[in-house]
Amino acid sequence: MSIVALDGLHVGELEIRRTRTPQELLDIVDFYVSSFPFVERRTVESMSRLLTNERVYFYRVFLNARCIGMMHFWILDDVVYGEHFAVVSQLRNMGYGRQLLRLILANVEKPFLVEVEPPVDELSERRLKFYEREGLVVVAKDYIQPPYHAAGSSTSLFLMSNDPHLSSQSLQRAIAQLRVLVYRYNKESEKLY
Predict the structure, then answer these.
(1) I want to staple 131 with a disulfide (CB 3.0 to 4.6 A). Which of 88, 102, 136, 140 is the partner?
(2) Mean pLDDT taken over the chain
């Protein structure tokens, strides 16, 4: 199997469904907004436009017909980038996130790359430890996430990967693709395009 073939997969009591229409994005809006700060999330309209992008795979996770999670991936040249990954707050610390992350890691054909907040408070420290327990390591501590929004600012984040030996060249190519494809950011003009 691969990360692009998760649609319809049942994992224990969870069901994975690919998000294909703007209407289906409504399943995740409330917990997406509550799970990620404004500077670390795109607009729903932006997500909607990406649904037809061949590099993008948005999935919703269901438990007993209720959407309880989301996983958003970009297939880049050297890595699979996990843009957003969340479970509704009421079901956190119940093992669903771990189960989903293990599913992801078992099905990526390339190194997996994710942005994580540096450990500055209890929540960000717990998030970092969660990824570390599942085998991810920090591959860049000086990464600057470009803004998602024209009025936004850049954010300092860590990059983590399941490949502790991710080459510097692969990492730099992935960062360049994140800037251009994911954030649509032009460093020379310091603005979104």
Answers:
(1) 136
(2) 91
